[in-house]
Description:
By secondary structure, the chain is mainly β.
Amino acid sequence: MPTRFRTMSRLALAGTSLLTLTTVAMAQDQAATTAESGATVLEEIVINGGSGGVITADGYVGKSSATGSKTDTPFIQNPQSISSVTKQQLEDRNPQTLLETIAYTPGTRVGGYGFDPRFDSFTLRGFDVTYNSVYRDNLRQPGFGSSLFKTEPYGLEGVSILRGPSSALYGPAGAGGLYNLISKRPTEEALREVEVQYGSHDRYQGQFDFSGPVNEEDPFYYRLTGLLRESDTEQVGVPDNRAYIAPAFTWKPDEDTKLTILGEYSRTETGGTAAYFFDGAAGKVTDIFAGNPAFNDAIQDQGRIGYEFEHRLNDVFVFRQNARASWLNIDADWAFASERNEDDPTLLEGTAGTYEEWLNTYTIDNQLEAKFETGAFEHTLLGGIDLTKIYWKSLNGYGSTPPIDTDNPTAGRPVGPIAFQTKTVQDQIITGLYLQDQIRYDALTLTLGGRYDWVSTDTDDTDLTSGTVGTTKQRDRDFTWRAGVTYETQWGITPYASYSTAFSPNGGVDVETRDPFKPTESEQQEIGVKYLLPNSNTLLTAALFNIDQKNSLYYEVVTLPDGTVTNAQVQRGEIRSRGFEFEANTSLDNGLSLIASYTYTKTEILDGPTGTVGKEVSSVPNHMASLWAHYAMPEDGALAGLGVGAGVRFLGSSYGDDKNTTTNSSRALVDASISYDFAAINKDFEGLKLQVNATNLFNRRDSVCSAGYCYRDQGRTVIGSLKYSW
């Protein structure tokens, strides 16, 4: 099997939130005031506020969002570690994938599976969060098997990251935390831009973004974002083509009511595998493509349509209802060479396969928020009920592929049609009731919340060769809760402490026993401090955490009943993760913006397969650090219009398997950017900007092993962009 994902199915999900109308108005007033004074201006506030956790930010510094509590709450009042990737960061770094988007956030381990444009796989605080911790606009975005929704960064306003177990509001979720991807929304002011890009590996892309009022009289606003890309990659037979369109529409008849509709459709073409051949005898990853260019197509279509509705009933109550329907279909072929021919070592033998999957999800979240006082205490009380329905179907077939001739490794090797041999269908319904109270007394904020979830999962597992059908019905339920406290001192320093829990029902089945997985449970203790520097647009945060997780899923090489050897998900006993995180974000009036982070993570397997107890989880470095700085030259200087940026991402050494018998070396990857605003030459060129971004500038391509499977880091990419805004 070419990848751990082929037999993987896991699900965990989340909820939603909104900014209040008062907060939006205050943010807009503040933006106007700072603009008049010449100071740095807050990012443009979208017309529908924060129903999806929209970030209020000043340059690189996120100030508040609804991601941490489903109510608009300043970051310093949230009793958990929270970070943001702001709109300005996205513009300066120009990320092309979700992994590049979040690469500079603390605790986030990207690149654990090397170069692979098919999936955005990553860990947070030592725990895999690919399937159960990615949310879109605060609503659940589940994943099963190879059915993972692809993220187009150009369609994002930003990303909010809440670290640690978060089921008290969001329902089934992972131990590491959650990533809330915030879609672009309609704006009050007109916004128009078109852009063309050219980059490494014959990469061609055109994109556009239009927004504003429909007309001058009616309270209707729109946004339309899209792109078209045709590109090769560093791996022969693995393209990176995409068509993307995202319409959005807002109706705001008065100050008490608003409705926003968000849509998206995309089609992505890439490869069924992107792995390199691992030479077991030599113990290293080669530069030989382990797949077959003639049998390596993967096409994914996906779409979503949803709405965010808010109505203020009176001075106390606000009702919100957010809903979305999403679907995807992926059709892929793959081949994978895993060993040398015993008689002729210049030939590499392997297997091949084909699969098709469908994933349909429907989720709705109903919320009622009340703001009131009881004596000296101010309350923000939130209650809600949400419902998620998921349908997943997977067809799989296995066969053979002609061997690779290492003297001509890129030659195509035709493979005949492979029939499907197994079919898996899963239906899952998740219902959750939650209640949270944020109690404010002077500078003290106490957050208490709890939630009860009911999960129903029905699985039909069919052997298409024999016609045998296995049916399993699974019923899971759990109560999760969170308690936290923050105290804002007069010096701007805010210490906090919290306890939180999470559980996650796991989609998919054990490939050996064919039994469904048990739910994963976790709990966290966290203490930290947040410091918003007075008279400076700078936010510093630090946190100490301890997380215990039971019934977690991980990857292991297993032998199936038919003799097939594959890298599959199995369920581990217990993992503990302890660590320290530090983050600094700033955007200053002198044109300098900076993000920096350091993370220490120590994972330990407390209960697991023989040989793993007491060991560390594979591919989780003890030490990670990152630094990105961008400087815009003074407008009255000789280099006016020029902007330069540079960053480094350091990954310490880690283990290549859970028995800790192999080691991944430490590495530092360098990124850079340079841009020029042509308005500095002549005002007639206002809105015209040229920018060049480089990722992994020095083309470092070390090997990296996870769960005993080895990959190679993605090499250097350089992208030039010419954008015109008006």
